[in-house]
Amino acid sequence: MFRLNKLDPRLKLTWCLFLVLTALMSRSILLNGILLGVILISELLSEKSLKSFKMLSVVLLIIGSQVLVINLIFGREGELLYSWGILEIYSGFVATAILAFLRIGIISFSAYQFGIHTDPMDMAQMLIHWRIPYRYAMLVPMVARFFPVMIGEYQSICNSQSARGVPNDTVGEKIRNLPASILPLMYRAMRISNDAALSVELRGYGRHASRNFQKKINLHPLEGMTIVCLIIGFGGVLIKTIL
Amino acid sequence: MQNEQAIGKRSIFKTDTKSLIGAVVMGIVFVIACQITGQIDNMLPWGKMGMLLINGTVWAFFTGILTLLYKQPGGLIAAEVEALISIMYTPLWPTFIFANGIASIWVSFVAVKCDMTKWSHHILAQGGVCVLGNAIVGVGLVFILGLPVGVAAVSSLITIAVTWPLATLAQKKVYDALMKSGMVK
Prior knowledge:
The complex is a heterodimer of chains A (about 240) and B (about 180).
Chain A: H1 9-25, H2 29-47, H3 54-74, E1 80-84, E2 87-90, H4 93-116, H5 120-129, H6 134-137, H7 139-163, H8 171-202, H9 221-242
Antiparallel strand pairs in A: 1-2
Helix pairs in contact in A: 1-4, 1-9, 2-4, 3-4, 5-7, 7-8
Chain B: H1 2-9, H2 17-43, H3 45-48, H4 53-85, H5 93-113, H6 119-143, H7 149-181
Helix pairs in contact in B: 2-4, 4-5, 4-6, 4-7, 5-6, 6-7
């Protein structure tokens, strides 16, 4: 059975980079549409749903509609369709907006797919395979570990402000309260990082040249061949775009 | 010995565990701050036109202050943490990887050449951060979002004009306070 999180992180990273670079290079709506479809199908095959893309889709729809409006007003590609005062609408705005929408979809979904289906420990091992000292490689799992901690800290600061009766409803109030919520968070972050640094140093972080992992990553020959095929595929797209 | 002292005084590097972990945790704070200010910007008229002015100011301030606080590679780590987590909320993340990295390296070079005690030093540091960062994001606006070049250029110039003075002011005030508290030596 096909599971994205069982694949080697190097294959997933190559796949992600292939999608991002191809989307940036190609100006073909068809190719970009196919790539976006492949991302969605691979997600469906692996997870049986597209639930994980729900939040990102909403964000992309908002950005996509902004892009459409900006291209409608300022786009100058194609033939002039309508003119009223300084407002001029050209025929090329639809194609430009569709291409941009497909492109932002591929760039965001591919990277998000890589992020959610790759274990931070696998990412750290991938970096160690690339000869990055483990003191630096292990910072990736630390980001994953501390992200929810810091979100919790921020929420507790917001709750404290609410309990004190600080209004936080309008945009003006939110801007006024920004230093009052961010500066305590910075102070807490410094305290937490000092404690964490002391704890890991006392446990021997960085004392030895290497580090053991419970589960090691191994590149299967088939995965290696897929990486080579993706690189060749990208080379083909690059040559076709240049020619 | 004299050489060691000289390197210690104005070194670009700081590789102790406290700096590395501090950079990671502060990088997460950087992400949270950018998300909050991004949401505030989106509620305002300029945010609806795609110009994130408050978010840009906070981005420039954090890039500068974290690099001054943790030097390299801490500054670069914090900046890249923000760039990589931005995958979750913006398609411009590939440009952020380069913009954040180059901006952080610029601040390090300024901090090595200047002692960061005068306003001019902070203006120079933030000038590089805002100009280089927004220029790279401007390229992303054209190639990723497909905006017309003129619109991307105007958007970047307005963002630079607003964020440069505000981020300089914030960076100088906070850096001086950190110096006074003994957190930056």
